[in-house]
Fold:
Amino acid sequence: MPEGPQRHEAPGSGRVLAMSTIAFTMMFAVWLMFGILGKPIQAEFGLTDVELSWISAVAVLNGSMWRLPAGMLADRIGGKKVMLFLLVSGAVASFAVSFANSYPMLLVLAFLVGFVGNSFSVGVAWNNAWFTDRRKGFALGLFGAGNVGASVTKFIGPAIIAATAGATYGLGVVGGWRLIPVIYGVLLLAIAVTLFFVTPHADRMPGATKSVAAMLEPLKDIRVWRFSLYYVVVFGAYVALSATLPAYYVDNFGVDLTTAGLLTATFIFPASLLRPVGGWFSDRWGARKAMYGTFFVMLAASGVLMMPNGHIVLYQPDGGRSEVMHYAINLWLFVALVFVIGCAMGIGKAAVYKHIPTYFPENVGSVGGLVGMLGGLGGFFLPPMFAYSKAFTGMANSTFAILFAVTAVSLLWMHLTIHRMLHTQSPHLGDDVEVPATMADARASGTREEIHA
Structure:
């Protein structure tokens, strides 16, 4: 391959990155808008916490289950066409949410709106086609920072809901929470028009000549499924917490919805904006180191957050009793620890996707699509798991016990895999570490065979 293409990005790659990131940011906001809209929806329709959790869950489901075919399609026909389709279809579905009049109708429309969540695998495949290996980690990290869209509704939602409640507009649109989906629908259409004219008309299609079987071949590799579990931890849990934290703050700390949205943003921003940093770190020092740091930090923070409020009661021989080791996590410690988890997730999300073009450079669309799909499905299963665990245990912080357990399993699998790989490739290194000190002098005068003899 000529040296030039390896050292310089193709003309138009910057426009692809900019517009795909803007589009993904807005579609991510639409995908997770029920996190803030949930409380007013719950009040209007009289829903339980479990019923409410399913509204966000079905949106996340539809935004995850098509990521594999969407990524493959972007490789085959070009990311621009697929991204435009998602923007337009998402605008129509978002506008329709404003007219929901029953819980079943809300579930159906939330499912349809969720389709825009598949924009992630489309954007990954699209940007991968336009950037060289030298810049892919940073480019994919910057694109992935569009996750910050999850905070858009947290900022503008409560203010718009409060300011427009009871108002009526044209075309049957009313104020309050129902106005938010209409605004999003208009913005999605505007971005679609801009993207069409700004990005290069001649798109790149690295999978245009590949058969579907060839694109699916890498999915037999166990590494793809391991990377998917990592992504459940750093992305699926991110989606789940983004959707459930507003209600968590309201229910457990007694703050209003506006404050809950702002506090949730302190988790969303680092989990999104640090993604380019994670890509840069992975380019420079390796994705494996980034993943170790991510998992250890998440275990430490979630380990504290899952501890139940309470104290230990000591019974004395004389019948008396005393209470010791009182523990209750306050609001600001909670916010700080969730912020730390967000920082770790931001680094980890980029690190996972740095693995993909490294191990599967010719199949980023299909592999990235599967990893994104399974990671996103984690965001589908986790909110109901949080709700059911709370109902079963009576403790809201059981949410973080689940997060701790999933993170621990991922770290253990990664570490055992790396340990086994190093042992297979360099078995002699074990002797270099474990040989008794009395044999140290023998190394200087004898060969390895003589020492073992």
Summary: The two ends are 50 Å apart (CA to CA). Residues 1-5, 442-453 have pLDDT under 50 and may be disordered.
